[in-house]
Structures are given as structure tokens and as C-alpha cells.
């Protein structure tokens, strides 16, 4: 680290010598602190990885920062899908950014790979939604600055179903049956791949969380989907699936589910805020309700949290932390992030400010009823097996208990070697 | 050379001559300066990140370049050198690096060096003391020492350095909650701090003990304006290579075999580092029951897939080319263009479209609704039908290429041969089998082999159409009936999420490389034989 400073100083000295060949003595290189003054003295720069949507907001926050501190902020636009793998690969080589935007469920792998630093909000944790801080916390330490929440909720076509959605899944299907819509309900199943993420609220309503939770809501590495609760959920999937009632189907992909709902073929769907514009563009008036319970308990969807991570190998940690805690954690910057890419704000005052929109309020209510998606490293290994098991049960290709047992056995092999 | 004979006039190379305008030499100097600058820039960058291999390599390349281009001899070298450099940088280096990764445990939890793992573990285990308040902080200096000055709840100023625990400072002045002066210290303002990277490092590394008792923790700051009391539960001893958990007393020692800190009871710390594991990854690929079974099935399917794709698309392309070679056919030009269309679509887009069209539900899947009378056919979820679907879609994508190639090759065949055959009374079929096909094969066999090698690693079609599914039911690995070796490697590498194992993935790619290499070598020998026969 020191080496860079040295070499930069050496280059600067050489450049000065070259330019000062006229005879004037070059000033001493930058190692001497500039005379104490309040005027910003430019030094170094921060590199922030950000996706295209959120770049303008980060740049806006960076403008103030640069004006006040003289530190340039360089935003590097990356595909959101690539950021996690690139961050993991590049931080150890010293090529990574100082700060990156990311999702909270990356946290586990960022931690075991040792690429992320902790963040000290200096007691300002209470200014954020609880679930957001909870999600970014791992083993008692805060590792990211949360700024947005996202979760799925029940979206209702107000023309077909003007009444707020019933509290249980069966009542909802019954209510849908009274309309003349082709389908009672659509949900993304990702084709034959399965989509345990979107289905998760139904699973929690049977009391079968993906991992067993401690009392404080943090996750252990023990699978919580086994036991009678898990089997009950598997049975329910089979009952509602293609070999049963036919309410659920693996024929639906994300596009097909959205299309059916947009065409008015189903009064209800489970979707995230990201799909709302698809529906409203198609001329459907929507309302957002909490997800009805299928198994009796509260249907808690996964809450994803978006935030900023600080690289463990950053050479500008102090400046980067300064930027995050004093320039991103402000009403203006949080509002700008919301305007640039509308996701539910994790910063409470911003959340209140935008909750006047009933759709935002609906998603916020759903998120507040949800649980953070586990950020333990094991979570990344669960999806494949979990999705496949659900899809095979819904399609009727596998018996629910057999498929569920195979999934549990596979997870045991994958997680415990 | 004797002195009494005049040497024959030797024409100087343009690159050396100073005669005339001298532009040749000047241009060469500029080019070589640019090459040298680039090489030195790379070496410099490598130095700043401690990459000695790259440093030595780039310097060597620059020196050799200078020797080759400024020497009078080495004419051959002047032509070969650029090609050799590209070969070294883009092929040999990549291969060598893959081999290196294959002998390490690089992957989730073993992502970097031991030094960085230690850093990360210390970061993760140093945390704010519970309910510790946050104090407004001012950085102060006394000579070389950097210290912290904070204002506590009662408005009292505390000051301390790494060597001297926090103590009340008599005679300090404050402005609100900011310290403006402490006797014996200079106050460093924020602007100065932010302008000085070296000072920032010092401030970040500074721990000011809260009291004489080490268990009380120490003050530290993360961003220069606030300080909190932290305590660390891990102590790193670089000489003994051990981490000691100060709350439980457990000693974790560095294990160079596995790249982890291991305690006596076998428990490990979260972050590990990269170490060499020899050939373990290669044996895992064949012996781990999770991978070994699927590995052979996937290898067999990979060969079948590549062979069937090439065979079917070549035959179809050839058949259509023959058809359109018949001059009695009307509208040949339009038809030819239509047949080439699939070739013009990006493969990944076509695969996605086909995935939608092959939806089992005839309401959504146009294939079932148009061609199978609305029957429900599970194109993508039945193991055999999924394989058929992949072959079919790939046929649709690939046959236009062979159609083009065969059309071109056929038009280059001399007409006389056909006439001679006809005069000799050969049938159309005989003419095709004995004359046209062998001549065609000479020019198309290399393309067939190349196409085989391409399809052997045809990631896009499998990934986009079936994602490797439907899954095997007899293994815990997330692999499926339509996975080919390259998608299996992708799955194991963990790039798309889940736990990554780059070491194992590299070992597998080396195996695939050997297989493809062997097949190509064998096939090229066969091609040569084919040419000898004729």
C-alpha cells in the first residue's frame, strides 16, 4: 500500500522536474501535508461500482462530496449480475473498487472470502428500517450500508377483484372463482426450473423456514425445511399443482405469468415492485396486499436488501467510510437513489416520504411482514436443489414426500460435504 | 573483408537509413518508444501490486524486443516476434495459469493470500463494544505521533495516542463538540486528513487504549470524525502463525495443507487462503461419488451431442445444397436466402425463443399447438425429449452453415467431371457417391472437425435452452441430463452463485482440453489420409 503512495510521489516528482526545467525549484512532493486550511485539497479518488440505473444518484451524492472534500468519486458502471463474481475475484488482486453496490444475500460469500469490511454507522442504525439493518448484519457486525428493500407481495387486478384480498389462499382462490377470469391466480415458476424465492411466503405460512432461525432472527446453518411442516408444504404444492387442483403450474415463466395477469386472465398474482410497470403499462389497475396465508401462519416473503459494501482491500477506507456514512446516509442522497431506481427505501424518513403512494405502501407492508433472505454462505447452495424439488412437485413428476426427502438429502450432502 | 576491395554497396533497410528524409528510422524509434513505454508501464503497475512474475515477464519481453529490432541480424526474429508475444500472452500464459489454479484449492473460502485472510479475520473480529457511545473526534499530532481527542458526555476533552491511553486533557479548548486545541498537540483538520493518504492509513490503524486495562478495548475511528470503543477477540501472532481467540483462549494455527486456521478440536476460522493441493482436484473429478457418476454420463452425452449435431446438420445442409444445385428449380436465390436466415440470428436469442416455443402447455408453446394438435408434450422436462429438443434446435441453428459451405464447395467442382460421368453412363447417385461427395469432403472435413470442437463446448445452446435440466435424480450435484462438460464446469465453478470451486473447475477444463485436443489430432490425421487416397 505504501508502495503505491511512494511510486505516485515519485512519478509526481519526475513530472514536476520535467515541467520545471526552466530553473525553478520543484515543490516538495505530496508527502508533506498541505498547510492546514479549510479549502478542499484534492487527493486520491474513490472507485465505486454501480449499475446503470443507480449511477446518476450515486454521482449526485458524489458531487457534494467532491465539492466539500476534494476527493474525486469515479463510478464504474457494471452489470448488476456481474458485480458479485467480479468483486470476489478482483478485490484480492488489488484491482477491485473501494465501494460496490450489492445485495445483502451476497454477504456470506463476501465474508468467507474475506473481501468486505465492516461499516460503523456511529449509532445511526435506528434511522434505518429494522429489517434492513438485520439483513446487513452478520455475526453481530454491520457489513453494508443498506439503502433499499425489496420483497414480493400479492398484486390484485382491481377491476376483477375490487375487494382487498382475503387472508387465506383458499379464500382467495374461491374469490377468484367468482370472477370469470380464466385462472384464479398466476405466479412465476420460472418454467420447469422452479422459483422458491417467489413461493417462499407460502412456505413460511406452513412454518418451514429455509434455515432454522435463532431467537434474534439470525439464521443457523441448520435446514429448517424438514419435518412435518416441510412435508405439509410439499403436500400443499402437490395438491395445488398440475396433478391436483391445477392452481399452480410449471408452465409459467416470469414473462408468461406477467402476460396472463396483464391480459386480465387472473385477478391475483405474486410479484415484486419491478413488475408493476409491466402491469400498469398494459392498462391494468393494480392494488398491492400482503400475501395470503396457505398454511395458517403469517406468510412472510423474503426481503432482499440492497446496499453499499466497503472493500476489505481498499486503500481509501477512511475516505470511503466518510462518503458512505456522511454523504450517502442523508435524506437527499437516499431520495435521489429512490428517484433513480424506485425500490422501497431502507432509510426510514425516505420510506415515510414515499409511502404516500399506495403501491409503495403495499410493498412496504409486505416487506415489514417478511424476513430477510439468509445471507449465510450456505444460502447460495440451496437454490438449485430447492427450486428443482418444488418444480418437480408442482408438475406432478415426483411424489411430494419423495421429492422433499431427496432435496433434504441433497442439501445435506452439499452443505456438509 | 579485405581492405583493398571496395565492398559491394549494401542497400540499407528503410528502418535504419538516415539518408533521404530519415523518416524510416524516425518511425521505428517512435514505435519502439511506444512499445518500451507500454512495457515499462506494465512493469510498474505489476510492481505496485507485488506481481513479480508479470514484472519480470514484461521486462524480459521489452528487452528482447529491443534486442531483436535494434540488432542488424535476427531478420527472422523481426517477423516472428509479435506473433510469439501474442501466443505467449494470450495462449501459453492462460493455459499455464489454468494448470496452476487446477493444483490449488482456489474457491469459496480460499479466495486470496494468507495475509489478506488474516486482515479479513481481524476486521471481522474487531467490533464495537456493546452500547459504547460514539464520540465526536478530532485528530491531533504531537511530533511523529498521531493521537485522538474526543469530547465525552460531560463535555470533558480526552486525548491519547497508541502508547498513552485516553486521559482528560487539561487546558483543551472546544468549539461545540469539536476540539480546537490541546496543549502539546497540533490539531489536524479534516481537510488536511482527507488530502493525505499516508496520514489516513495511520489514523485507520491507530488504536488508542481506553484505559490501562486492555480488556476495556480501544478507541478507533472509521472515517475520521467519530470514534467508538472497539475490542478485538482475535490476536494474530505472525511469528508463531497462530490466531488466538482472547475470549475463549482457543489457539488456531495456520495449516498450510488446507489453507485454514485450525484449532486443536478441528474447528476452523471463517476465512481461508489459497494453497497448492497437487493433483487432488483431478482425482476428485473421478472419485467423488457426486461428480464421478454424472461425469461419465455427461462425457458420453457431450460426445453424442457434438457428433449428432455435426452429422445431422451436415447431412441436412448437404441435402438442401444438392437440391438447390439442380438448375431446374425456380426461385433458387430467394429460397437460399430464406434458408440462411437462422444463421443470422444470435444463437442465445434463438435458444431463448425456442425455449418459449417448446413450452409443454399448448396455450403457451407454439410447437405443441401447431404441430402436435395441442397435445401436451414435455419437450424440456423429459430426459430424452430434452436431448432431442437440444439436437433439434441446434440443427436448426447449424444446418445453414453447412448449406452455405456445401453450396460453395459444389460450385467450385469442375463441370467436366459431371459430363464425363454422364457420358460413362453413371447414375446420378453413383456420380454423387463416387465423385461429388469425396471431393466435397476434402474441403469440408476440416470444417466438420472445427464444428465438432465448437459443439463440444457449445455452452450457449444448453445453458439457454434447458439449463442442463432435467436434473439427474441419482446424484446430489446440481447437474442434469442435457448438461455437457462445459456447462458442468460452469456449474461447478460457482460463478452464478453458490459455493465456487475454481480449482476443480480448472482441473475439469484441462481434462476437456485434453479430450478435444486428442479428438482434433486424430481427426486431422484421418483427413490427411483422406487426401492421400485421392
UniProtKB/TrEMBL annotation, chain A:
SUPFAM superfamilies: Periplasmic binding protein-like II (SSF53850). This is Maltose-binding periplasmic protein. Residues 1-23 form the signal peptide. Keywords: Signal, Sugar transport, Transport. One of its GO terms (cellular component) is ATP-binding cassette (ABC) transporter complex, substrate-binding subunit-containing. One of its GO terms (biological process) is maltodextrin transmembrane transport. The lineage of its organism: Bacteria, Bacillati, Actinomycetota, Actinomycetes, Micrococcales. The keyword DNA damage does not apply. Transmembrane segments: none annotated. It comes from Isoptericola dokdonensis DS-3. InterPro entries: Maltose/Cyclodextrin-bd (IPR006060), SBP (IPR006059). GO terms for molecular function: carbohydrate transmembrane transporter activity; maltose binding. Belongs to the bacterial solute-binding protein 1 family. It comes from the Bacteria. The keyword Transport applies. PANTHER family: MALTOSE-BINDING PERIPLASMIC PROTEIN, MALTOSE_MALTODEXTRIN-BINDING PERIPLASMIC PROTEIN.
Automatic annotation (TrEMBL), chain B:
InterPro entries: MalF_N, MetI-like, MetI-like_sf, TM_PBP2_N. The chain crosses the membrane at residues 25-46, 52-70, 79-100, 300-324, 336-354, 388-413, 434-454, 502-524. It is found in: Cell membrane. One of its GO terms (biological process) is maltodextrin transmembrane transport. The keyword Ribosomal protein does not apply. The keyword Repressor does not apply. Keywords: Cell membrane, Membrane, Sugar transport, Transmembrane, Transmembrane helix, Transport. It comes from the Bacteria. GO terms for cellular component: maltose transport complex. Residues 299-523 form the ABC transmembrane type-1 domain. One of its GO terms (molecular function) is ABC-type maltose transporter activity. Its main location: membrane. It is a multi-pass membrane protein. Belongs to the binding-protein-dependent transport system permease family. MalFG subfamily. Part of the ABC transporter complex MalEFGK involved in maltose/maltodextrin import. Probably responsible for the translocation of the substrate across the membrane. This is Maltose/maltodextrin transport system permease protein. It comes from Isoptericola dokdonensis DS-3.
